[in-house]
Amino acid sequence: GAVVSQHPSRVICKSGTSVKIECRSLDFQATTMFWYRQFPKQSLMLMATSNEGSKATYEQGVEKDKFLINHASLTLSTLTVTSAHPEDSSFYICSASGLTGGEEKLFFGSGTQLSVL
Amino acid sequence: GENVEQHPSTLSVQEGDSAVIKCTYSDSASNYFPWYKQELGKGPQLIIDIRSNVGEKKDQRIAVTLNKTAKHFSLHITETQPEDSAVYFCAASPPGLGNQFYFGTGTSLTVIP
User: What is the rounded average pLDDT of the residues A5-28?
Assistant: First the structure.
């Protein structure tokens, strides 16, 4: 299947600092990229949807000034957690949808475990 | 919008037995139904998918069935192995590029050796 690369896989930072997470579709052009947050033993919570070259669409309750999303190209989207606090600690996952083999499919990155001290 | 429900939330089976996970969806326009396997600390991995023009699809030990009339689809894993233990998510998506995927709440499958 197609590959979505997400980095870093784990990050520990001090409270008040900003953290950037990258998501790249390696072998297909991503029409749309999605960012999720996942708490232990829970389902995926959609945070925002981004399309290349346009502003991200945030889900209700997600602060767009805190979670900055940039989708600069058809293969790269970034999520920046600004002024991180301990309550932002979570598992963040990106996904990318695009045409592979003539069909649209959705593939996930490997996730980023963020721990804010 | 679309609403996807998934059952059961947890499932334990003996190694070698079959496991079945069921999902229902609400939007009859949805036409693509992927299944994902998520291991601890990793991102979900696409394991099989089905489109609405097909009733069943099989890939070795896993199969998916779709009943459009009843708006439900199921994942079947036969001859389960310990490495099948993971959380499985179903999803539904309406037609068109870039549309949102709607996920079930997940099923934690444990295969007992």
Answer: 95
